Amino acid sequence: MRKNKFEPIEENNGDDSLKKIKADLELKKRVEKKRKRKRFMSRFFRLCIVLAIIASIYAFDQSQYSRIREIRIEGNQVVSETEIREAMGINEGDRMILKLPFLVDRKTSSIPGVDNTSSKMYYTQGILTVNVTEDAAIGYEPTGNNNFRILFSNGEVKEISKDSLSAILGLPVFVGFDENTLSKQLLNAFGALDPGILNAISEVHIGQVQYDPSVMTLVMNNNYTVFIKTETLPQMKSYASIVSANQTDDRCIIINEHGPTSDSAIASIVPCTP
Fold first, then answer.
1. Cβ 112 vs Cβ 125: under 8 Å
2. pLDDT of residue 1
3. Which residues of 132-167 are buried (b: 16+ CB within 10 A; e: fewer)?
4. What pairs with residue 122 in β-bridges?
5. What's the rounded mean pLDDT across residues 227-248?
6. Which of 63, 84, 91, 198 is the most exposed place for a label (fewest CB within 10 A)?
7. Contact 108, 116 (CB under 8 A)
């Protein structure tokens, strides 16, 4: 009698357990589906962000705001803007990101006459400025066909054409020199002269003095002529004092050596003879 009484209860417990298991499975499925959906949406959202960034970068790269819109070359007098641009590899329309200042400045070391450059990029305006520091030009030498060579104090020379005559204005012309006499030592010595003295020299000749072919003849712009060697060229710093002390009509100065001190020179003022 008891056995029959409890049998329905055991059957109901079995049904409840089965339903609970099914409910748990359904819940797990829903949770897993929700988790997958959430993971998918998260990945999709990140992908959209990446694509948006790529699209923005591409759009910016194709716009004028990513390009160099203006190049300003400043400080150059002897070296042409075209030569500087070609050496640095810069042009309007280039991508700014590929023409970083420290990269383009490295390329100017090969340009004769350029000591260094300092570049700056104004990204919001698309302007690249290049400040050029040139080596000191101390003179020029004719090479024929109206072409010239600029001579620099560091021993470098630079060929220029008649279209760049402004580069030689105010510089003395060197006449009669060859590869041996136009030495780096000589150019260094001229480069060490005070700019005022260098500007007072109109012409530099060599080989005109028969007894000593190494003597240079400096034709000055105040009608004086100076005979001097490379070794005594530093004594040109006394030139103004020598001229001011001259009480004669003689206009030829021979500077043989320095005087008792490094600030003085032993000079002779003699008549100029043909």
1. no
2. 46
3. bebbbbbbbbeeeeeebbbbbbeebbbebeeebeeb
4. 127
5. 90
6. 63
7. yes
